[in-house]
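Q: Convert this sequence to structure tokens.
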Amino acid sequence: MPFLKPGLGSDPDAETAPPRTLVERAYLSLRHDVVCGKLAPGERLRVEHLKDQYEVGAGTLREALSLLVSDALVTSEGQRGFRVAPISMADLEDVTNTRVMLETEALRQSIRHGDAQWEAALVQSYELLAKTEIDLAESGSGRWERRNKAFHEALIAGFNSTWSKYLLSILYRHAERYRNINWRLTAGHASGRNVLQEHEAIYRAAIGRQEARAALALEVHIRLTHDIVRLQASQAELK
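A:
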């Protein structure tokens, strides 16, 4: 589980902290560039070119790329090297369905078992996210993305399952990737969707220990992202 950061009580801007090793630095930089779309789906990743761009040796870069293979963001072609993982609507649907299955159950378990510390961390993460969403023009999309991820992590932090959190962290990155690619190609960000209201519904149900209502609100929230991306992608002929 490479570089997995805990959600409970963590700083939502922690990813701005200096990486601990050269491999981690290269891994985080490459992951960011894949997720934001700077490295395009299907693009060949030539170690001899990228090692200078990311300022690391060839061995370090290959190790970082291998970590991204385990995240399913990069594919390995054996002796032919690496490529950025392709995208498709079928893959997006699979990511969405799997995330709904895992994250709603993790939220249910978190509500059942979360203690006062879980509640306090959830309140803090929600308030930071709400402030960011209200002042989005000043906060910027990068800060919003970090705090949005921190909120989703805080929701399930009361569930003592390292594997669930690890798998969900990977699925979140893939969902983020589709959002970023779609928003760059289309007007998906101008959908008229009230994300702040969606987050509030999830938060109030979770903090009120309303397990079924919270899980339903979370599922609706995740699937709305899928539906908007699918609509915009069809208009842009994203395949």
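Strands lie at 44-45, 74-76, 82-84.
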